Predict the 3D structure of the following.
Amino acid sequence: DAYPCAEKSIAANADDEYGRRILSAHPSAIAYGLNCALQDGRPMLSANILSAGTRGLDLMFHWRAISGACEEWRLRSPLVGLHNASNLLLVSALALSLGFSSGDLQEFSGFMGVPGRLERIPVDGWAPNGEAAQQTGVFVDYAHTPDALIRVLSALREAKFRRVITVFGCGGDRDRTKRPVMGKAVADLSDIAIVTSDNPRTEDPERIIDDIIPGVSGASQLYREADRRRALELAASLLRPGDALLVAGKGHEDYQIIGHEKHHFSDQEILRELLA
């Protein structure tokens, strides 16, 4: 409504029940999906997953324009997880509707992700060689609920990393009941769990960790380090070629709230320093 003269496009996920409802209500909407096979004449973008592993995604796109013209192209992306295949389909479908070509969409091959959303940190300086760098993943993600942790850790498991190392904590002055539940999610899906501080606010960081420990106690390897920087240093020292390291909870934030004050703190900056 804010741009009444602008051309508008709708793209909806045909793999999703709600997306199919949108497509049914809007015959001109673009359908996209990994299992999309609609034959109703609408524009459609689908993809076959050639591989989905530690290096990222290798996809073969299939585009059918409203004119009926068809096109195929291949895209390799450093993004990890099948959810990112759907994300790439969505942005590609909208870009095509705006007049971009399949050649233009190759720019996505260099896209490392949205800051703090399974954001991949380069490890070229740390890894012994290029092959090891491609097979090792260091990620920063905003996941700070049990469901979000399960989703992101499941994506890393699906990618078949050798081990998954998770650094996480829970925010202070927030729901205490979710703390052991988050701990269990990490214990169930990680090989190594490092419990640390998030934004402790006015709570004692050690007390927050005490609340987490009952849930995470079943982890194969468990470390406790309230100082978040030291926890990241520990994680970096444990990292080996082929592993995935997930630093969860703060994502895009470049601060830590201690008491009532914000202090500069960036997981990304520290990881780049440690892995340079």
